[in-house]
Design goal:
- This protein has strands at about 5-10, 15-20, 25-35, 40-50, 55-65, 70, 80, 85-90, 95-105.
- Helix content is about 0%, strand content about 60%.
- By secondary structure, it is an all-beta fold.
- It has a single domain (about 5-105), classed as Nucleoplasmin core domain (Jelly Rolls, Sandwich), CATH 2.60.120.
- It has no helices and 9 strands.
Length: about 110
Amino acid sequence: MAQDFTRYAVEATNSATTVFTANSNDAVIGIRIANKVTSAIAMDVFVSVGGSQTRFICKDLSIPPNSAVELVSGGAKFVMQSTDVLKVESDTASSADVYVSVVDSISA
């Protein structure tokens, strides 16, 4: 069975921004964050699990000016279940572009 690859792109702000909400068992296979300002920023990437728990992928990750980081790479992945929400937040408004690659509806 073919896999459904999906991408999500958002601009991180200084409040929690939803990247996407899982609608099934979805595998996150890539997260790239690009700092587009001339000073270092601190980024949080986290999953709201079941609407009541926050689980961090990274917390206060420092990204140097005009550079990027890859959080999920080299074959790594993590699974989000239906209704889990992936969110990002920067300590600086409009400071980063976030690009996430996902395999939607993982199948056997």
